[in-house]
Structures are given as structure tokens and as C-alpha cells.
Amino acid sequence: MMTTQPQYTYGSANEQDTSRLAEALAPMMTPGTVLALDGDLGAGKTTFSQALARALGVADVVNSPTFTIIKEYSGESLPFYHMDVYRITEEEADELGLDEYFYGDGVTVVEWASRIPDLLPEERLTIYIETTGLQERRFLLTPEGPVYRHWCETLKQNGVFI
Ligand code: ADP
Ligand code: MG
Questions:
Q1: What is the per-residue pLDDT across 97-150, written as a single tens digit (0 to 9) for each?
Q2: Using CA positions, which residue lies closest to atom 25 of ligand 1?
Q3: Residues with CB under 6 A from ligand 1
Q4: Residue 18: which of 131, 123, 151, 159 has the closest Cα?
Q5: Residue 13: which domain range?
Q6: CATH number of the domain to which 45 belongs
Q7: With the C-alpha atoms ordered 125, 131, 132, 135, is the resulting torsion angle positive or negative?
Q8: Is the residue at 100 inside a domain?
Q9: Domain count along the chain
Q10: Which among 15, 21, 23 is the best mutation to test ligand 1's pocket, defined by most ligand atoms within 8 Å of the CB?
């Protein structure tokens, strides 16, 4: 049976607001956290990922992993795995053994996650970023699984969503 998950909307007026969402999410993250990011080129997937990396205490420069597919960083208390699957097929992605990351000891962020639907863990936080202006963005969060639903409800209670 398909059930429609509730969606949560975050309005970002600028990059700083985008960082604020990352900063609100970061403290809830644990080993095995998976964020599935989607949205057009230039929506802000990498910008959000960089803000999240900073919030997790990653000291290294986080570049777009479009050409490397997967980059690993060490955060303050958790590793940070940054993926971009835009350039590869789902079959190619399957050969990379992504489960090692998804079910590993760190936080995984996947840009263009909807390109690999069959490889994503069932429990994840899907974030679709819409470009609504030059600097305005709309983040649509869809939690899959009780943990991520709880995250979203917590942020909602804290007045993070619109
Ligand atoms: P993607 O990874 O989705 O292709 P990027 O993060 O590489 O997108 O690019 C987003 C661009 O939009 C960056 O140049 C960033 O500075 C700009 N930008 C402007 N406003 C915002 C915002 N509110 N949130 C995120 N990025 C923004
Ligand atoms: Mg990107």
C-alpha cells in the first residue's frame, strides 16, 4: 500500500537561511542518517550540503562531487559522505556499493537522489529544492520512516517550517 507522507516546507530567502536549515537538522543526525536531495541545477543542493558539512564540523573544503561521485570527510563526531549521482546510471551506482555508506557510521547526502530510486534506503529524508526567485528557495521535506518523521515534527514544533 502506498501512503502519502506529510510534507514540510521551509522557505529560504538567501544562502544564510539555507545554512540555518542545515544547522537545525545537523544536531539530530546519527550514524546512518541519509538525506536524498533533488532539484534543478543551481537549486542549492551543493550549497545546502556545504552548510551541513560545516554544521557537522567538517573542516575541509567541500566541493561539488559531480566528477568524483563520492567524497568522504571527517566531521567533529560523524563522518560526512557527499555523493552526486547525476553523471552515472543506477546500474553504475549499484556497483559502487552505496550501502556501505548508507548503513555506515556517518551521514550521507545524495545529490540527484531520484536518479537511483532502487538503491536508496527506505528510511531517509528526501529534500526537494525549488528555485522560486534569484535567492529564494523552497525546501520540501518528505520524511520516510519514523526517525525522520520525528525530526520533522520536532522542527515544526520549533517553528522552523512555514
Ligand atoms: P545544485 O547543487 O543544486 O546544482 P548549487 O548549490 O551548486 O546548486 O548552486 C546554487 C547556487 O544558488 C549557488 O550559486 C548559490 O550561491 C545560489 N543561491 C542563491 N540563493 C540561494 C539560497 N537561498 N540557497 C542556496 N543557494 C542559493
Ligand atoms: Mg550540486
A1: 999 999 999 999 999 999 999 999 999 999 999 999 999 999 999 999 999 999
A2: 44
A3: 12, 14-15, 17-18, 39, 41-47, 64, 111, 135, 137
A4: 131
A5: 8-157
A6: 3.40.50.300
A7: positive
A8: yes
A9: 1
A10: 15
